[in-house]
Predict the 3D structure of the following.
Amino acid sequence: MGRVLTRRWLVAALALALIVGLLGAARYVSQRGAERAPAAHSEEAYRKARLQMVSTQIRDMGVADRDVLRTMESVPRHAFVPSEYLDRAYGDHPLPIGYGQTISQPYIVAVMTELLDPDPTDRVLEVGTGSGYQAAILADLVAEVYTIEIVPELCAQAGERLDALGYENVHTLCGDGYYGWEEHAPYDGIIVTCAPDHIPQPLVNQLADGGRMVIPVGPPGSYQVLWLIERDGDEIRSERVMGVVFVPLTGGPH
Ligand code: SAH
């Protein structure tokens, strides 16, 4: 009798151990699944968010250039924002990228890119690399992108990010973009994504005949006017586009 009881206890204890073990394994598997599931889900969620962004924030707001719209639908903006803002990567606003700087609002990126009227053979200069997002958009639309960033840490990060994402036609320079990048001038397009209080003459000088420059100009800490500058031989034409808010251009002769 005593031995039978002991055996029953033993069987019960083994069964219990088995159940606990199985439950543990099941929990482990489901946790791993849960860790992987959002990542797999996120790529699709990001793609949907991107299409939604282009549809409601950009196309509905008047940007019509098909190539610009297509490019903005494909470049993974979430790869250019700090991880704490991933859930807001496709929102209708700029986002902080550290060092007091921002990645521009998607609509502004689209408007400025459309104003440049990019051509597949163009060589474009960007002043203010920041996250590298605008440079990546341009990289899909033109032949070569030259981009300058004055904050060394942002410059290094953007360079690494663009390399990792495979943007081979983006060339980064750490320095003061007020003076442009003489070595590769003239440029068919120049895009300035920080605001000087006047148009830098070196940039005008580096604009090719028939080239276009898109630049916000105005006092720091206030709103600025976005200008489209076009060179036609020796003639420089300028057109006001709209009011914008950019971080200041911090270099230059001051
Ligand atoms: N185009 C960027 C937006 C960056 S915000 C993007 O897509 O994320 C503007 C950037 O201009 C900041 O990173 C700032 O550090 C940089 N900047 C300011 N003055 C500059 C200068 N003189 N030369 C180059 N970059 C400058």
